[in-house]
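Appendix B. Raw example, untouched.
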Amino acid sequence: MSFASYGFLFAFLPVALAGYWLVARWGPSAAMGWLIACSLGFYGTDHLPFLLSSLAANAVCGFWIWRTEDKPSVQTAILATGIVLNLIAMAVGRCSDAVPPGISFIAFTQIGWLLDQRGGAPAGRGLTYPLMVVFFPHLIAGPILRLRDVEAQFADPATWRFRAENLAAGGFILTIGLLKKTLLANPLGVLVTPGFDDPGALGMPDAWMAAVAWSFQLYFDFSGYSDMAIGLGRMFGVRLPENFDSPYKAQSVIDYWQRWHMTLTYFLMSTVFNPLTLAVMRWRRARGRGTNAAAQRRLGGFCQMLLVPLTATMALAGIWHGAGWNYLAFGLLHAVFLGVNHAWRLFRPGPRSDRWHAILGRVALTYSCVLMGAVVFRSPTLDGAWTLLAGGQGGGSADPHLRLHAVWLLGLAAIVWGMPNTRQSMAHARGWRPTIPWALAAGCAASLGLLSLGGTHEFVYFQF
C-alpha cells in the first residue's frame, strides 16, 4: 500500500488514527498493540507469515544474546547467527516475491536491535521491539530505527496521549510530502523513463536532461517519502529521526552522505566502517605501526585505515539497494568519491575558502559526482549508464518541448538549492499552532495533492 493513494489516505489512515486514540485510553500497551496490528494489516496477509516468523526468530536471538552476557564467545556466535539470518532473508527478497517489500529496512532494523541487546540489561522488551520493527510509517522505506530513537518515547506515557498539535503538525508535514511526490517527483517520469529505457537514441541535450530529471525525481521522491513518514509518526505521537537534510546543498561527498538517507549512513558507519577501522588499527598496532593522524597521511596508513574500510562499507551500501551490478558499481563509485574527498581533506595545502564562488564550486562539483552515481544507480546496464553520461548517441534533440522542459528543470533547481527544507521551515515557524490560516493553507495544499494523485507511482525506495 502506498502512502500516496486514496485507499491509504481515506480508508486505512482514518481508521488507524480513530482506533488508536480510542484504544490509547486503556494505556500504552493497548495503544502499542493497536499500532502493531495496524502495521501488520498495512503489509497485508500475503507477507504476514514472514513478518511474524522474522519477529519471533529475532526475539529469540535477542533474548539469548542478553542471557549470555557472561559468555562472550557464545553471545558472539548467537549474534552472528541472527545477523546472518537477517542477511539471508534480505538476499532471498532480492530474488523472489516470497518476502515483503522493504525487506532491507526490516533486516537492518532488526540487526540494529540485536546489536543493542549487548550490554547486560534487557533492551527494548515487551511491545517495544515488534512496534519498532513494523511501525508502518517507516516500514517500507525507512528511516532505519535503532532503540535509541524510540525506546524513551515508547516508555513515556505522554507519547500515547492525544495532542491536537501533533495531529495538526503531522498532517501538515504529511501534506508537504504528498505534494513533493505528486507534483514534483511523479511528473518527471515523462523525461526519465524514455531516457533510461533507450539512451542510445538520445542526443546530448535529451540525455543530459534525462539524467538531471532523474536526479530531481529521486530527490523529491525520497524527500517526499521522508516527510510523509515523519508526518505520519507525528500524528501518532511518535517522532521519527530525520532522514533527509537538503543533500544537494552539500559541499562535499562526505557532507552529502551525512544528509542523504541519514539513518542508513549512521547504521553503516556504526556497524561496518567503525568496527573495520578499529580492527585495522589493532592489526597495525600489533605490528608496531602508527595509527595517529600522521600515519593516516602516509599512503599505507591511508589505504589501510580509511580506504579499505570505506570501500567495504560502500560496496555493502550498494548491494543493500539491489543485486544488480549497477548497484555494486554505484557503491564502489561513491567509495572512490569519498576516498578522494578524504584524501583532499588530509593533504590539501590550505584552509577551505568561504567565499561565495568557492562554495558554489564545491556544491556544483558535489552535485556532479552525485549525478554520475545516480545515473549508474538507475540504469539497467552499465553500458546504458555510460551512454547516457556521454550524451547519448543520437544527433540533435528530438524533443519538441525541449525549452519548456529546460525551464521546468530550472524551476525545480530553484526549489532544491534556493528554498529551505521541511524541517527548517517548521523550525522557523516555532510559534506554529493549528490556527485557521494554517488550516486553510493545509487544506488547500492537501486538496492540490489529492487532485494530483493517480496512476501507480510507487516510491523509489519501495523496491528496497
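End of appendix B.
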